[in-house]
Amino acid sequence: MSTIRPLPELLINQIAAGEVIDRPASALKELMENSLDAGATDIAVQLESGGIKLLRVRDNGGGIAKDELALALQRHATSKIATLDDLQCVSSMGFRGEALASMAAVAQLSLSSRTAQEAHGWKVETMDGHLSEPAPAAHPHGTSIELRELYFNTPARRKFLKSEPTEFAWCEEVFRRVALSHPEISFSLTHNGKTIWQLPPHTPAGRVAAILGDEFGLAAVAVERQAAGFTLTGLAALPAYSRSSRDAQYFFVNGRFIRDKVSSHALRQAYQDILHGQRHPAFVLFLELPPERVDVNVHPAKSEVRFRDSQAIHSFLFHTVQDALAAPNAEVAAPQPA
Ligand code: ADP
Ligand code: MG
């Protein structure tokens, strides 16, 4: 006869980590989103061995006060929502209060932070779910979170990691997505001591050019329309820049990178008359809508959304992009064949 018993806290967090932190890139996404939510204007990412050996994110955001450091690492503790109403119109990237707790359960985590009110920073470290007392630490205003040896205590999960270059490629993709959606912020990325990206603040178009290259910019038309409470901005590439995979499709909803069926279908359709065969369109598009018109609490990693009015969204996206691609100046922007 089996006995029902509550699971220990560490195991609960390790189970949650299976969904939220399924590879180094997911940890990087959560950390960078926390930095955005903290109002950072400068975010530095350091990785070693594809993020498996070391993953460090440093920001100059608002920081965490000494007496809240332990809470930040506690499951279901968040500064971002307090009520169901808050959840229904959430504007921050985070709100579930489980990312740091999950990370602390599957890696050696150290957290250093300093708020504007504090004369110096404070540092806490976790090991096997146990948290050290805060110790004074030299730290500028903002927060640094460091994860070492991801999945060191969950070998089954660690076995699922791909090669270091592959894990790095995923991390870099997360970095590109966050950097594209926040051109006003400066970002840097180093891997194994080598600087991979160094991005000063840009205009939106400047950031797209920095990340996707001038070729994309030259082949792209501007998209901009506001209607019925929706706003779509960004760049959509003409067929000259079409791809054999979906590797240059960036669609953001209220600043979040999203892959969803409604928008994918609408965008694909907008291209159907000008793009043939197996080619895939390339675009960087930002959809903004009131937060209560989209549910982001669908998936732990928040990479899916549910639109309250998906018909209207579909039609808005389809018509806006189709019109932009058909605009008279659309041809002019395309590079001339040599
Ligand atoms: P969530 O982001 O869903 O609230 P997290 O586990 O990611 O949950 O973070 C828990 C809390 O720790 C956040 O609500 C925030 O108050 C604080 N926090 C995490 N990272 C940072 C950061 N880089 N700067 C300031 N505060 C942070
Ligand atoms: Mg978070």
Protein traits:
alpha+beta, disordered C terminus, binds magnesium ion, 25% strand, Ribosomal Protein S5, domain 2, 9-stranded mixed sheet, 12 helices, 5-stranded mixed sheet, binds adenosine-5'-diphosphate, single chain, globular, 338 residues, 2 domains, Heat Shock Protein 90
In summary, what is this structure?
The protein has helices at residues 9-20, 24-37, 69-72, 84-88, 99-106, 155-159, 164-181, 204-212, 214-218, 261-270, 310-326, 328-333; strands at residues 42-48, 54-59, 108-114, 121-127, 130-131, 135-137, 142-148, 186-191, 194-199, 220-227, 230-237, 249-253, 256-257, 283-288, 294-295, 306-307. The protein is of the alpha+beta class. Strands 1, 2, 3, 4, 5, 6, 7, 8 and 9 form a 9-stranded mixed sheet that branches.
Helix fraction bin: 25-40%
Question: How many domains would you count in the coordinates?
Answer: 2
Give the name of the CATH architecture of the largest domain.
2-Layer Sandwich
Highest-level CATH class of the largest domain: Alpha Beta
Total number of helices: 12
Number of strands: 16
CATH superfamily of the largest domain: Histidine kinase-like ATPase, C-terminal domain
The secondary structure category is alpha+beta
The averaged pLDDT comes out at 93
Terminal residue distance:
77 Å
Q: What's the SSE pattern? A: HHEEHHHEEEEEHHEEHHEEEEHEEEHH
Q: What's the oligomerization state?
A: single chain
Low-confidence stretches are 332-338
Protein name: DNA mismatch repair protein MutL
Domain DNA mismatch repair protein S5: 208-326
Organism: Ferriphaselus amnicola
Family: Belongs to the DNA mismatch repair MutL/HexB family.
